[in-house]
Design a protein that fits this description.
The structure is a homohexamer of 339-residue chains. Chain A is an alpha/beta fold and 339 residues long. The first copy, chain A, has 13 helices and eight strands. At the C-D interface, helix 1 of C face helix 1 of D.
Chain lengths: 339, 339, 339, 339, 339, 339
Amino acid sequence: MIIDIHAHVSAPIELAAYKASLLSHRGAHGRGKVGASDDQIRAAMEEPSRFFGGISHLAHLDDAGIDLQVLSPRPFQAMHSEEPAKLVRWYTEETNDIIHRVCQAYPGRFRGMAGLPQSPSLDPREWTHELRRCVGELGFVGAMLNPDPMEGTSPPKPPLGDRYWYPVYEVLCELDVPALVHSAGCRPPARESYSLHFIVEETINTISLINSQVFKDFPDLKLIMSHGGGAVPYQAGRFMPGALRRPEDGTFTDRLRRLYFDSCLYTQDALELLLRTVGADRCLFGSEKPGTGSARNPETGRWFDDIHLLIEDIGWLSGDERADLLENNARKLFGGLDD
Amino acid sequence: MIIDIHAHVSAPIELAAYKASLLSHRGAHGRGKVGASDDQIRAAMEEPSRFFGGISHLAHLDDAGIDLQVLSPRPFQAMHSEEPAKLVRWYTEETNDIIHRVCQAYPGRFRGMAGLPQSPSLDPREWTHELRRCVGELGFVGAMLNPDPMEGTSPPKPPLGDRYWYPVYEVLCELDVPALVHSAGCRPPARESYSLHFIVEETINTISLINSQVFKDFPDLKLIMSHGGGAVPYQAGRFMPGALRRPEDGTFTDRLRRLYFDSCLYTQDALELLLRTVGADRCLFGSEKPGTGSARNPETGRWFDDIHLLIEDIGWLSGDERADLLENNARKLFGGLDD
Amino acid sequence: MIIDIHAHVSAPIELAAYKASLLSHRGAHGRGKVGASDDQIRAAMEEPSRFFGGISHLAHLDDAGIDLQVLSPRPFQAMHSEEPAKLVRWYTEETNDIIHRVCQAYPGRFRGMAGLPQSPSLDPREWTHELRRCVGELGFVGAMLNPDPMEGTSPPKPPLGDRYWYPVYEVLCELDVPALVHSAGCRPPARESYSLHFIVEETINTISLINSQVFKDFPDLKLIMSHGGGAVPYQAGRFMPGALRRPEDGTFTDRLRRLYFDSCLYTQDALELLLRTVGADRCLFGSEKPGTGSARNPETGRWFDDIHLLIEDIGWLSGDERADLLENNARKLFGGLDD
Amino acid sequence: MIIDIHAHVSAPIELAAYKASLLSHRGAHGRGKVGASDDQIRAAMEEPSRFFGGISHLAHLDDAGIDLQVLSPRPFQAMHSEEPAKLVRWYTEETNDIIHRVCQAYPGRFRGMAGLPQSPSLDPREWTHELRRCVGELGFVGAMLNPDPMEGTSPPKPPLGDRYWYPVYEVLCELDVPALVHSAGCRPPARESYSLHFIVEETINTISLINSQVFKDFPDLKLIMSHGGGAVPYQAGRFMPGALRRPEDGTFTDRLRRLYFDSCLYTQDALELLLRTVGADRCLFGSEKPGTGSARNPETGRWFDDIHLLIEDIGWLSGDERADLLENNARKLFGGLDD
Amino acid sequence: MIIDIHAHVSAPIELAAYKASLLSHRGAHGRGKVGASDDQIRAAMEEPSRFFGGISHLAHLDDAGIDLQVLSPRPFQAMHSEEPAKLVRWYTEETNDIIHRVCQAYPGRFRGMAGLPQSPSLDPREWTHELRRCVGELGFVGAMLNPDPMEGTSPPKPPLGDRYWYPVYEVLCELDVPALVHSAGCRPPARESYSLHFIVEETINTISLINSQVFKDFPDLKLIMSHGGGAVPYQAGRFMPGALRRPEDGTFTDRLRRLYFDSCLYTQDALELLLRTVGADRCLFGSEKPGTGSARNPETGRWFDDIHLLIEDIGWLSGDERADLLENNARKLFGGLDD
Amino acid sequence: MIIDIHAHVSAPIELAAYKASLLSHRGAHGRGKVGASDDQIRAAMEEPSRFFGGISHLAHLDDAGIDLQVLSPRPFQAMHSEEPAKLVRWYTEETNDIIHRVCQAYPGRFRGMAGLPQSPSLDPREWTHELRRCVGELGFVGAMLNPDPMEGTSPPKPPLGDRYWYPVYEVLCELDVPALVHSAGCRPPARESYSLHFIVEETINTISLINSQVFKDFPDLKLIMSHGGGAVPYQAGRFMPGALRRPEDGTFTDRLRRLYFDSCLYTQDALELLLRTVGADRCLFGSEKPGTGSARNPETGRWFDDIHLLIEDIGWLSGDERADLLENNARKLFGGLDD
């Protein structure tokens, strides 16, 4: 069985139009609503998409043998840095509601992961109302956490190792749900695309977290770094010597292993490096499917994001490790997957 | 016959989704395209809309007896202040292309009025390429001009009486087409909604223009102030005494009459005040239909934006004046309406 | 009898020199004082002024048959945005003191309306000390309230519908006096003159107030919008459809009628539009005399600001309505006019 | 004979009122004019002033035996940092015109020293038009130069040793007139009063000039540092060691002596220190009379600004030195004093 | 006996390298340490220095007959404005520790004066921990206080007369130690060198203090203005007339005499002016030796900073006055010099 | 034979002290000089260092069998963002001069790689004077290029794919020398350490370059990305699908192979991933020795930066590939290594 913990909802075009509308009227028309019918919601999951290789979201899952997928909002659309803050709240709630409706439309196939209304002009405490609503009322099993609510504008908020984030950590621990660390959009004057910004943020915040007091203050906090941790596993050697200076905190590898990592990497070399660096027990299967990798590799004919095939190809992985990676680790981390 | 010179295209939802996409990826996905079929374009004009009183764009026109409508982009969606500037260019061009397709889909029923890619980080000279394309290649008959490309952010660009705008005026005169002055969105820290910002901008820029050198430097420039000129006709008395100080420029009324005004006001009192203040010969029929006024007045049963009925109700207007207002003034100002 | 509730003191030149001095030494010379004698104060009211058509303040009143005038500071001189804040306090207090001396010099002819030291770097609570002093100690009957203490600089303070202003509303209600909403100066980077800024601010803040909780939280609050409410009555139709969405708050007209409006408009068309739109019972006679309109209309020979003549010319106004407008409404709104 | 080269005009109150008016309307009323009569101009020079010890400007001169005084604008009123820039230009020109009228009203008693319209948003080249007008058309004999047109706001313009100032130096040399270096107002966030800012600016700019290329590039440039050079003569020892590192530029004293200094210091100790440090041949009599020092010293009964008495009391000064200081140095530096 | 209260430690080059390191890694390497041996510390005091005329710190003291010197950090190296704030704390503590080691290395020859970690992003309360440590644990006898922690960047913190500084004054009074007011570095956009900035800050803050409530609120506070008070004694006459307006606060001289001044001036004229202006009883011997003045005057052969020789040369000073200035005043002001 | 192209000079402590001095006086003391003797320069290379595992720079090279090392300035000390710009120029030139002296001290052992004075307030054209000097006069064989002269402050300069950098590329091509892309310091408000900033900058700029016109405009440009290209080889799969959209530019791998990469990674897994991803022919041996990795791995006893051992351990690498990586690729890319 395969559980995919990193995936984003394929929402009907009405959600995008709703977003465009909010950014046009900036609240003057009131909250409005997305106004998508159940049919439109199902169609968005079932109709072939030109952006994702010409097949549907569900077809991607079927092809890849993904049995259960944890669905979160599509991050680059989150618009956390837009003003006024109520736009962010409205859009986030509408998106989570659509995820909930998808979960209901396909019983047993999906679980929800909440987006948070991370407007930088709101206190992080304000963000947690939606987390409580999604877990408490909608049955979601986790949250996505954007480490850069400024979306590339300056000055940034403090990184995830800072006390600024503690109100969110408190509620995550209280509700006993994990968070997938995943940045959102990226705007000028930042130089990089949102996709590259993901990598940059994962890099900065992985290091920030493991050098911080966070896991001393929240020993039960469960954080999953997206995309295999940005640059960190690849650059791990660079940080090993420095870690020797504080032996009481363990080696760099020990520290990395306080975090979890998803497998969202599209080459076997990268995947092997990740598994070797942090251990299969700290990795969760995540495909981001359908998404950036949903194109066919002309050399192999495979989808780039057929990560389960890459995993199969790793000869040195034991059957147990493979099963943990594909299913069991997710079950341990997330409550509610067995419901 | 009724010619309506102030109206905005009813575009298929794909255009909004395209905008949302641009603002999410900020250019990282490339220009892309709206991808609306001809059927979708016609449907957007022909299907009832919950935003506009439950009937379609075309039905509104038919009900109101509007024979010919000059279609411009929907201004509050223009996003001129978004970065990077290429987003503005792409979105503006796509929008103009859709207007063009609407015109082609309904021969004789519509003419195009171009949106301009008024990114404040581009030189106004850059904006005029699209003006030339729309008039030269697409057969558009005018342009819409946003006097506040900053969309309520600060500091503003200079007002329309300033030389900053001369590159646009030069091309308008060269192509011999009029511009409808109409602001776009409005964002924090501005305090007002985009709709109220329209009024503010028309107020500030009407006064800026008539106190400037613009009509000395461009005697053939044809500018139409939207929404009956903001506050100016109502507040005209306030500006009359000051105008006496420079008698060589004429009275305040003389100066106002260097501009044109549309009739886009939804009360008869306001309409009468406008006509009395600037003269029927400086007014053009504009309904913004369907739009802000496309709701039924519960007291009268009429659509608020049934401006042609308000005009009919003005007893003191002669038949010639009424015909000028409804049709002839537009024909004089715009080339290409008879084609 | 005519009571004029919108008028600004004609102060001796010493007050302007005092202001110039404050802005030159920025507080280094201490508070100082205006140093105008009683004779100078009377002269300023009685000597012909080249700025106001060559006759005196009192002569204007006599000519127009204004029996009682409520005098406030001349708004465009208020300098609320100047630093340090103590300059604003000193200048405001000195101005109010001069108004008080004028009231004393002409018993029965004038009442005082307080300027407030609205420095944006002070908490609005600080502004109310002067309001209490003027009403409690000097017998003033109301206050003038500037909705833009930033005077056109950015970012603006929140509009009048925001809780930011509640400390002022509380004291207005406690003292049971009305406020005349009237902006002050306007500086770069704003594009408009102070006089046009008046109109802009009245437009933005009329809409802000009637869409807010203010009159639910302060049902007894009495606010008078200057200059006939900026653009709002003229553009009323534009806002009527939107108001239908919240029927529990009444129609747009109902909402407008929670405010009062002065008659300070210099054309009969505008005056009629105002009276028709908001009702004669919500209008107060205000002439701003002598002021912007104190020039003779070369076509009619009348002073532009002879608003009482315009009112006389409105044939459809009943005698009672005329009396209410010219006198009774003011008596109802303002305490202390009968003393 | 005594020639006083540092003194500011006592202008009629109408000039202050004019300034207040400009800062209130910010240009909306047009340039206007001061509107002071010849009588008012004479009265301002001849009537006792409460700010200056209760006697008149002329009485001060008579009491002190000042035969000829070079009159400049009162610096703390210059408002160079106010926007828009045209206000600065108008006010400066009006002030210079009043100085000119004073000179004409008292033939042989006064000479004019021009204020410059030093708006920081104008190119310094723009400032020199008024310098040419004053010298060429009004017969002025020099200019006052404000080294901080930002008036204490940040960031400052470069100091006087920078090429930024060369357009002014070029015209000073071409016209062969000296400039009195004297700052103007001082606004928040600066912490000091305008009067203390004078001292700060003289300190910074004396050092900037003598460490620069200015006197190599303009060997004929004549600059007079006000108030005895700020802190520099007192702190001269502090700068002597550093000067030894570039012996080709001379000692620190040699460098100081490329400048001129006025005697505007109100204690004998300070005056003696100045004369000993820079030499009597580099000092010019300047009293700033009437001004900051126009109060009676309760211990001596003298006016604080009776600098001629302090000079008399310096026993070691030769008769020639005293005559040079009081008269001859000024005649050498300024053309036009003998006319 | 001579006690020198204004002198800065000659630290081994390792301290500068430590500073360079902090500013390079910005905290990433952790606090680290200076790592100077006792030998290096002694060498820095005993080896000839090319910056200070080719002889050693100790040789300077011996030559000048300075028996006891109060050593503070070298101010221009304090880097108070650098971020993050912990760099400032680390560097300040390391510097104070080196001063302490110097004091221990030469028993009876030196006393310590603490630098404070005046990061502008910390509350001044935070600065006082180090003051308590230095006085309480290291036996230091006073502190150096930088009135401009922004080091020339803008906006400045309030001047020393403001309540902002009260947390520091409270601890100074509680510990009963004096503070030497002395600014630190100076960075762009400020126009002046750090050395000239010293003078500017002393000028501004001397005036701020004596016009404030500080000495009413802290009657026992002991503040010493460096470098003879900047420009103030030289410009004292300028401030005397203004002081007459508040006779209850005493004359300007009375006010000046609430402060202390060091003798750190390198010309006899300046020194005499200081002593005459504030009185020998308010002056303390301070040489800044070795420092800015440690070069030989080619005309006299003396070191510029041989201030004791200048004092000897002042004929009118009595023996008692001279002894007070050189020794007794320091003993009265500082506790712990007799230990 | 082993040629190490990524290494930074071990300079005597005097260079750090020189930097500290510049940042303290900000130019006021003039340029000064480092003042290190030849003995000190040799000692810095030959004495054991506590920062680098207790052995010397040369000992590290000998231990690792590095025959020839290309020495550049130590990047985190470059201080490119400090003002005024002349500090950057002075410090860079002094550093390059020390590198030159090291090269001369050990003939045949080292070659110089120039630091550039990349002050963001200078035009990049200005930076190239030092490049010409180093190559033309000092015989250096390449340059180090910092892609973020703002050092983490905002807004950033454009990334390396932008025309902003063309003046540097032109001179690199003209002189036919490669550049090692390597960022410098990192300051608040950036959240990451300088070392992590290296990785972030390599990531952003690798992607910027391969998506730009740079290699079309400069086909001969030779750029080496440090630290194995940041995150890019590890995340390569993520960028492969997008590259398919522009097949004319080749696959993502093709594009990566327009750049060179150094081997500066401290785990075998990472090294293998790099070699597999970009090919051994695009990799150059670089150890950064001694540096971040110069600590002994407690598990293996090896130095972390013994990259040559990691390379030896890669069984699948052919002898030719190994020789190319360790020596031949460097000889092809750099001129002057054989001299």
